[in-house]
Amino acid sequence: MTQDLLPITRVPRTGLPPHAVVVGDPARAAAVAALIDGAEEVSYHREYRVFSGSWKGLPVVVASHGVGAPGAILLFQELADAGVRTFLRFGTAGAMKPGIGDGDLVVAEAAVRDDGVTHQLLPPEYPAVAAPEAVLALQRAARAAGAPHHRGVVWTRAAFQPGLLPLFSYVGAGLAAIEMELSALLVTASLRGLVAGGVLVIDGANADELVDEQATGGYDPHREVVAAGVERGAVVSLEALRLLAEAEEGERA
User: Fold this and answer.
1) pTM of the predicted structure, to 2 decimals
2) Helices marked H in 62-181
3) Cα separation of 219 and 60, whole Å?
4) Which three-class secondary structure state does DSSP give residue 113?
5) Residue 170 burial (CB < 10 Å; 0-12/13-18/19+)?
6) Distance CA 236, CA 184 (A)
């Protein structure tokens, strides 16, 4: 019956596992789901493709939210309505400072709220911060996987293509990377008492002074070095969920 499904994502109102990895691309959701045991497609409506299964015995959700925070926040809200309590966003991003290479992972500590949606929900002074336990779990999982990684603040920006406004406003602020959805997740989690964090695979450089289009041929996320980073990031995300669940169990014991 349609009343048993949530209206935007068409996921069941109840019965989802409480731990989720969320990604942008529906194809990436399928690729991450291929790593889990007993993966089943729960729903596929619009850009929202949702799987359930288990990772090393932990029931998990893997879901896609599409491109951009306004649509992504709908997935976050409906998954929370359906029972998800812990979210890790696994996405791609552009590097914002030297020393962060293609295929590296960036574990987000917080995000600049330039996402195009949360300013319509809360004043801009409200912070978008990752749960400390999520940051530490992602860092621990990255170390265990031998994945090159960095920690820092990221910039969630609604506009993907460059416009008339330059990027220089945040370049000198020490931001690690730029992406499009994380701050919406972090704000949603703070408002609803959820645990959330994010890990991003670098697929190019975005800070103006880092971009050498003559040398690189321009933005190309479909390179082997990026694909290898995505493979590592998928395992890191799932393993960090397991570490978080393990810590939760320990607190309850």
Assistant:
1) 0.93
2) 69-81, 132-145, 168-171
3) 33
4) strand
5) middle
6) 22
> Residue 23, Cα to own-chain centre: how many angstroms?
6
Element (H, E) at 240: helix 224-252
Q: Are strands 105-114 and 195-205 parallel, antiparallel or unpaired?
A: antiparallel
Residue 181 corresponds to which tokens in the numbers above? 């959805």
Give the ranges where the chain is alpha helix by DSSP (H).
26-33, 69-81, 132-145, 168-171, 182-192, 213-216, 224-252
Element (H, E) at 250: helix 224-252
User: How does pLDDT run along the chain (253 residues), one tens digit per residue?
Assistant: 467 999 999 999 999 999 999 999 999 999 999 999 999 999 999 999 999 999 999 999 999 999 999 999 999 999 999 999 999 999 999 999 889 999 999 999 999 999 999 999 999 999 999 999 999 999 999 999 999 999 999 999 998 876 666 666 677 789 999 999 999 999 999 999 999 999 999 999 865 444 545 544 567 888 999 999 999 999 999 999 999 999 998 787 7
